[in-house]
Design a protein that fits this description.
heterotrimer; A alpha/beta; B alpha+beta; C alpha/beta; A: alpha/beta; 9 helices; 8 strands; 37% helix; 18% strand; C: alpha/beta; Rossmann fold; 8-stranded mixed sheet; 13 helices
């Protein structure tokens, strides 16, 4: 008798069809969040503050109460939700541009205040939905539609290391950077996401996970090659690891 | 007997699962879906599937919906 | 800390009156960033909300403050933010979102001199900002304009009620004069019925599917349907909630109209004009949106002239002209920034205009 070892999480809406491009890691990240909501049994008590960009579509996939936020303001809205309803589990799902460029003030101050929230940030080194422009995490040398000869320091400055910065905030309970480039790393990513929700449940402060992800369309690479780029180009700069864990 | 279930309508032909399978049981199929892409096929005549679920864990589009181990 | 007062007559500042009334109205969360001349509201709230175990955040910016307010009201509770002029400018994005997401945000806007940093003198230069909006797209904010500290209390209660009733952001548009001056006021219990938010509020999807509060819709037709519905709501607001004060308009040859704190001197100017034998009337819109178009239109048929008095370069006068639509001449008496023109100054100009 065969036992089922994999099924789609119940926190996903029925018969979900993602609108992400083929091979995009967003799909894995969204599924992992849904699996964590299932495992912690918190779907019915959770509220999402959504974002702008490809990440916004999460509210069409995960079956929780959701509020749209203007670009970059998800952490402010999440703060408002949590202060109004401290008994709810509140999380954001944002891209690197949303979280760490236009929304950097909201993100950092939520961390500094130690808001009991969970923030998941997808770092794919570009603005995906608008067609692959230079973003806050675009790597030095990386060609984008607004860095046509590659990102150079003189012209564009440096990329931001989000997980390290968030870890420096005293109100942060957990900050980690994970990757989705291999199945082993996907499993680690899920553990980090789970931890980021658990610290909120225990009232310890902000739980944050930066997820290194692919954008095969704008990188103009096959999904396979895109994962190679994550390993060879992103991970040496954005080193995966746990940068803060107040539970240790 | 271990096996997987593929929802062919959801496959977007990224083919990430093909490299993931330790037994190389996934391949680009002849069938196309509504997206007009050649969807992945599970081809396991020798019952080699381990039920490891690496393909489903990797699939970014929820196209591999169930995995059974036995 | 200032005591929260109920059922008492006290001498207090406009800003404290607003904050105190908000607490009595059941405001569960306050989010704000300091700016003169309304900082006392946040100061009062910081202590009071903690004491009552309600929500208070010293926001990192007005952008954050308005979005925190959006977050809080999306869960069905009453919440507010307060600010002034150049900082209300930062909130326009959030206000646009709150209209399309149909969220009962309450914003207290205590006007100061502009444009830009301007100064901290009283002003009415944000009539356009409040009634026409600086955010994107087709939307309206309900705008209430108090003229006394007592009205700061009355209209704060009303702002919470109308925001909830119509699920639309509502602005209490005061100014530095009202915010800073002291008058005797009476506080009383929140006089309006509580609105049931359980049909739409985000409370966690217990025993039901998740709700999404969003404006995003990829299809043009869907957006058209939504906007028609939104404007159907605005027509209801116009029909039911338009409020104004009028005195001696029945036999008036000339009607003096103004809003907010300026109308205090205008009312006196009307009385002095009467003593001088000028048949003057007084008309004050209390709701700036919805604007009392219909009543002004009626009055324009029986008067010779309408004069608008404002502390700005002439903003409400445009709405008066639209309402009157050429039926009688509309003149403007104005001063850019600062204390409103005195009653004497107004009378002198009325005598010139008549």
């Amino acid at each position: 008798m065969a036992t089922q070892v994999f099924k789609l999480p119940e926190s996903l809406k029925g018969d979900v069809k993602y609108s992400f491009c083929p091979g995009c890691d967003h799909g894995v990240a969204v599924r992992l969040i849904a699996e964590v909501l299932d495992e912690l049994g918190i779907r019915e008590n959770t509220i999402l503050a959504a974002s702008i960009g490809c990440s916004v579509t999460i509210y069409d996939y995960i079956n929780v109460d959701s509020l749209e936020a203007p670009h970059g303001r998800a952490m402010a809205e999440a703060t408002g939700i949590k202060r109004a309803r401290p008994d709810k589990i509140v999380f954001t799902y944002q891209g690197d541009g949303d979280f760490a460029s236009i929304g950097l003030a909201e993100s950092m101050h939520a961390a500094l205040r130690g808001e009991n929230l969970t923030a998941i940030c997808i770092n794919n080194t570009t603005y995906g939905m608008t067609g692959g422009q230079l973003g806050p995490t675009t790597l030095l040398g990386q060609v984008t539609t607004t860095s046509p000869t590659g990102r150079n320091v003189d012209y564009y400055g440096y990329p931001i290391k989000i997980a390290e910065h968030i870890a420096l905030c005293d109100g942060t309970a957990f900050s980690a950077r994970v990757s989705l480039d291999t199945v082993a790393n996907i499993k680690k990513a899920k553990q980090a996401i789970k931890k980021a929700f658990e610290v909120q449940i225990h009232g310890l402060g902000l739980g944050f996970v930066e997820i290194l992800s692919t954008c095969p369309t704008n990188w103009k690479m096959s999904p396979d090659k895109a994962h190679e780029r994550v390993r060879n180009e992103m991970m040496p700069v954005f080193k995966p690891g746990i940068y803060k864990d107040k539970t240790n | 007997m271990s096996r997987i279930v593929i929802n062919k309508d959801k496959c977007k032909a990224c083919y990430l699962c093909i490299n993931e399978c330790p037994k190389k049981l996934l391949k680009i199929g002849k069938d196309t879906n509504k997206l007009g892409v050649h969807v992945v096929e599970f081809d396991d005549p020798g019952h080699e599937c381990l039920g490891c679920a690496m393909c489903a864990t990797r699939c970014p589009d929820l196209a591999i919906t169930e995995v059974y181990k036995g | 800390m200032v005591e929260c007062l109920t059922n008492k007559k006290v001498l207090t500042k406009g800003n404290y009156a607003i904050a105190n009334a908000a607490v009595i109205a059941g405001c569960q969360c306050y989010f704000g960033y300091p700016i003169t001349p309304q900082s006392e509201i946040g100061e009062f709230m910081s202590g009071k909300m903690q004491e009552l175990k309600r929500g208070y955040v010293s926001a990192e910016s007005e952008l954050a403050a308005i979005n925190m307010t959006i977050g809080a009201v999306s869960t069905g509770v009453k919440a507010m933010t307060s600010s002034s002029s150049c900082a209300v400018a930062l909130m326009q994005e959030g206000l646009s979102y709150a209209t399309t997401d149909e969220l009962p945000v309450v914003l207290v806007s205590v006007m100061r001199g502009g444009p830009g940093l301007g100064n901290i003198y009283p002003s009415q230069g944000d009539y356009f900002q409040a009634t026409k909006g600086g955010g994107n797209g087709d939307y309206k904010l309900i705008v209430l304009a108090p003229s006394t500290v007592q009205e700061c209390v009355d209209l704060t209660y009303k702002a919470f009620y109308l925001a909830q009733k119509y699920r639309n952001p509502t602005v209490l548009l005061a100014d530095g004069l009202l915010g800073q001056m002291m008058e005797p006021v009476e506080f009383y219990d929140y006089p309006y019925p509580e609105i049931d938010n359980s049909g739409w509020a985000l409370t966690g999807a217990k025993g039901r599917d998740g709700r999404i509060i969003r404006s995003y819709g990829p299809l043009a037709d869907d957006r058209c349907v939504f906007l028609e519905k939104l404007y159907e709501k605005y027509r209801k607001i116009e029909e039911n909630e338009t409020e104004w004060e009028e005195i001696n308009t029945g036999d008036a040859d000339i009607i003096l109209t103004s809003f907010g704190s300026t109308s205090r001197n205008v009312k006196t100017a009307m009385k002095i004009s009467r003593e001088k034998g000028i048949k003057a009337g007084f008309f004050r819109p209390v709701t700036l949106y919805p604007f009392p178009n219909k009543r002004l239109k009626e009055l324009s048929k029986t008067v010779k002239k309408i004069v608008t008095v404002e502390v700005n370069m002439g903003q409400m006068v445009n709405d008066v002209k639209l309402a009157v639509n050429g039926a009688c001449p509309v003149e403007l008496i104005h001063k850019g920034v600062g204390a409103p023109p005195s009653a004497k100054e107004i009378v002198k100009k009325v005598e010139e205009l008549i």
